[in-house]
Each structure stands twice: as C-alpha cells, then as structure tokens.
Amino acid sequence: MNSSEVLIEAHNLTKKFNDFVAVDHIDFEVYRGECVGFLGPNGAGKTTTVRMIYCFLPLTEGLLYVAGMDAPTKSRDIKKIVGVAPQEDNLDPDFTVIRNLEVYARYFDIPKTEAARRAADLLKFFQLEEKQTKLIQELSTGMKRRLIIARALINEPQILLLDEPTTGLDPQGRHIVWDEIRFLMKRGVTIILTTHYMEEAATLCDRVLVMDNGKIIETGSPKKLVKKHVGEEVLEMAFDETTLHTLKDELPDARIEIYGDQIRVFTNQPHGSFERLANKFPGLPISIRNANLEDVFLKLTGRKLRE
Amino acid sequence: MTTNNNRMSNRPLLPQLTYRVWRVWRRNFDVFAKTIFVNFLPALLEPILYLAAFGVGLGTLITGTIEGSSYIQFIGPGLISIAIMYGSFYECTYASFVRMYFQKTFDAIIATPINLDEVIAGELLWGATRATINGTIVLAIVAPFGLVSSPFAILVPVLAFLGGLLFASLGMCFTALAANIDFFNFPSFLFITPMFLLSGTFFPLTVLPSALQTVALAVLPLTHLVNLTRGLVLGRMDSFLGLSPEVLAGLSVVWMTFVALFFFILSIFLMRRKLIK
Q1: HSE, side-chain direction, 13 A CA sphere, residue A138
Q2: Check whether domain A232-291 has CATH 3.10.450, yes or no
Q3: pLDDT in 10s for each residue of chain A, 307 residues
Q4: SS3 A161
Q5: Which of A12, A56, A88 sits opposite B111 (nearest CB)?
C-alpha cells in the first residue's frame, strides 16, 4: 500500500497566532498512497496543520513541501493537486447541488463539458444523483458532508484532506463516508484526515499521528500503537477498594488505572489471561475486551477535558 | 536543511491578480442571473418613486429653473448616481460580508488555485458591474420622461463602472473592518446618507456656503459622480467655486480614478490582514 515516495514533508513546522503556538516545531512525512490520521484533543493543532498543507494559513516557521513544492511560494500549484473537505459547511448556498460542483470546477479551470462529466460521476459515486437540482439547505447533514467530499474530488487531486469528515453524522452516514474513503484509498489517493473518533482512525488509517498542545507525541500504525501502549486486553470492573487490592495481588505486573468509578487493567499477556480471574469475584460483573486506539489516546493525552 | 524564519516576509507587496479574478466575478454573475427578477425589481421601482416624490411632488412647487433645467431634469442625473453608489456600496458591504462570514464562500474559493487577492478583486469588479447595471436601468427609466438631453448619455455605463469601482472599494474597506454585520450601520448613516443628500443630487451645491462646497468636492465621492453624470446626461455642468465646467470635469475624472485605485488596493490589503492569519 505504501510506496517510499514522500509526498508531504514538514520540518520544524510551526504556526503561531499572536502569542499562541498552535503548531509547535513538528516534523512528519506522508507517503504516496497512505491514509494518515491526525488525532488529538480539541486545540491540539490538527486543523491548523491541515490548513498549512493546503496553503490556507501561512507558516510562521519551518519548511513544508507538498509533492516537492515549497508551500509558501508554490501555493497555487499545490492547491491544484490537493482536494480539501473542510470541517465546516462552506458549500455555496446560492447554487444547487450540481452547480456547486460545476462552479467549483471552474475555479480550477476545468472545461465545461469535462466539469459536467466529473460532476455527474461524483454525484453518482456519492449517491447524490437524485438531489442534484436541490438547493444546499434542503440537504441533510450527511448529504452535505458527502457533497463536500465530492467537491474536494472535482480536480482529481493527488492528496485529499479530510478535516473531521464524519463529525455530526449518524452511524449510517458515517459508514457510507467510510466506504467511500476506502474506495478512494484503493484508487491510490493519498488521504490525510483529522478525527476525534478513534474507531474511525483505527479502521481507515495506515498510520496515525497523535498531537497534543501543538506537538506530535506519537506516530505509528493503529495496531502497533495499541500493542505498544496498552497491550492486548482490557479488563473493566466497578471501583471498590477490595476489588482493587485483589486485582493488584493477582496481577502484580499489569497496569491498573482508575477512571472515575471504574477500574481498568491493561495486560500484555496473550488473550485469555483474564479469564481465570472470573472466579475470584463471584457475582461481580467483569468486562473483558480488546485494547483499542481510544485506550492509547486517553493514555497519551490524559483525561482532562479540553476547551 | 535550514529553517527559514519568518516566512511571512514572502507575502508580495502588490496585489497578485490574474485572469482568475473573472472566475469570482462569474460566480456572482451566475447567482445574479439566477435571481434576476428579484434583483431588477427594486432597481426599477426605486427611481420611479423618487421621480414621483421629488420630481412631480416637490418639483411642482419649484417653478424656477436650475441653470437652465427644470427641477425634475436636474434630479435625473442625481438618481442615476445614487443607483450607482447604492448598487456597488451595498454589494461590497452587506452582500460581500454575507459571502465571507456566513457562507464562507471566500474560504471555499481560496482552497482552489484562486488566491485571496483575486477573490477580493473579483468582488470589487462585480460590485462595479452591479453599479453599471443599476445606473443604466435608471438612465433607461428617466429617458422617456424627457430627462436626457445629450447624446453623451451613452457614456453613462462607462462612468458607472468607474464610480461603481470606487464605491465598491470603499465598501470593501468597511467590510474588512467590520466585526459583525451591524457595523455597516455606521458607514450607512454617517457616510452614505449624508452623501445621498449633500452631493448636488437634489439641489445644486452652489446654494451652500463655499466652505461646504469645498468639503463636498474634496471628500464626497458622490459629488464628482453626480457632476460628471449631469454633464453626460444634460450636456452641461454646474460651475462652482470659480472652476470652469471643463476644469471641474477633468478634476472629477482624475479624482475618481485616483481614489478608486487607492481604495481598491487598500481594501485588498485590509482583507489580507483580516483573513490571512
């Protein structure tokens, strides 16, 4: 899936808004054909980083190359090969669904007949054909989101930037968007997405970059990060002093954490190692589940509420 | 690899404009063409109301002539100029602000190969186009009332574009400074309304003290526009402050061109400061 060709390269990339450092001297690469996820709590710097990649925000410091082009000086050429689906709805409410795509194509100098062909194809792919003559305000949240992604593809971009592509969607809408993203990955589009949903990152991304306070604090494939930081399995039980002591005695090497009124035990032991504990706690509910990316995320970024 | 500090210094000093300006213009034109009926109706009705109120109503009380014209003939060019001013100023204040702030249309466009300078320039040229359309409509409405007496009236659209560009650029500067849409009450009531009344639109400036005439000529753009429009529509201009009509016409053309260009560039800089963080 990944080739070794570096498509996006950042060194010491920094963005300051007055005194606030939103992105703090980060380094990263994105390879052609990869799907990379930027994870992090609110205000971590994910969106700011994405906005610098499509030259929406000038850099304060550092270097940023997109397809070998220097971001501060080659913004026009970079924007030609990048597709952007921003977080907020900035579809054009003065036009219908299909005109949104056609007018957007004109901004890229795509000839009229070619634009009409691409618009029709995209509407079909995103299951919006029946809505093509509707105005934007008549669409549901999920349809708007899909239209924004469709619009981002009108210039047949090499790099697709998806800033929180499924925020606010119902489970059906989310799964449709995921299927579409997977299809684009198969076609070889390099995808960068930001998300708050760990399940989304785990299912879509080849690699994730975890950001916090403007810095990249961890990088790797979702599977590797889960293994490295939380292990294989997680045991969850209601908090109780006796339970806690018993668990500590039984599992001296395991990492035990208390989350509110819950005890969580993380283990690197192979699957099934928690099973034998069941008879130590007669009558108490025990939940044993696979460790996941959310566990990693909370471990790395803490549980303090942001914003 | 070395880190290049302060990449902001790469920002070019002059507006970076290409043919892409017209892509932005075209977007606004397409929206206008779609809602043409809604757009045309007020532009048609307003001057008719003014003609009825001031020309027929107030005008019947004014029996004398103003420098050889009847009162209704005198206000005809004023109405054309007001349509030019309103058409462009409100397009590039309220309408541009809605596109920029509520619809995020500017954000969507600058994610494409079009840059912010081109978005703003496209908006300004569109504002000037609206002014040209509105001004020409009013010219066509007042003509059957016998209010056009010079063949030079055919040049009104050209003048309307220049005047429109001036008021569009002024409006865009206010848009760049506006924190919210209510802010536009200030330029509306403190700048546009006084100009509407005091720029030689409904009465000749010569009735004012010469100090006020000087102020009107120095700082009120509408004075110059009314002056030139009256020249084209009626074939002659008022002379005031001891300046001959020829000198006045030349002064007004130069003044408007210079001020339009200045605020055109200034509005792009103010918009960069507002939107490029």
Answers
A1: 11
A2: no
A3: 445 799 999 999 999 999 999 999 999 999 999 999 999 998 899 999 999 999 999 999 999 999 999 999 999 999 999 999 999 999 999 999 999 999 999 999 999 999 999 999 999 999 999 999 999 999 999 999 999 999 999 999 999 999 999 998 889 889 999 999 999 999 999 999 999 899 999 999 999 999 999 999 999 999 999 998 888 889 898 888 888 888 888 888 888 888 888 888 888 877 777 877 777 787 788 888 888 998 889 888 886 666 5
A4: strand
A5: A56
d(CA B186, CA B180): 12
Tokens representing B275? 């939107």
Identify which of A63, A93, A106 has the shortest CB distance to residue B23. Answer: A106
Q: What is the DSSP string of B6-52?
A: -GGGGS-SS----TTHHHHHHHHHHHHHHTHHHHHHHHHHHHHHHII
Helix count (H) and strand count (E) of chain B?
A: 12, 0
Q: Which residue of A has its CA nearest to B106?
A: A90
Residues 28-67 of B with CB under 8 A from A: 30-31, 34
A188: left (phi over 0), alpha (psi -120 to 50) or beta: left
Q: Is A231 left (phi over 0), alpha (psi -120 to 50) or beta?
A: left
Nearest-by-CA chain B residue for A58 = B8
Specify whether domain A6-226 bears CATH 3.50.30.10. no
Q: Are strands A20-31 and A6-17 parallel, antiparallel or unpaired?
A: antiparallel
For chain B, first and last CA: distance in Å? 26
Q: Give the ipTM of the model, two decimals please.
A: 0.89
Q: What share of chain A is helix, strand, coil (3-state, %, to 5)?
A: 35, 30, 35
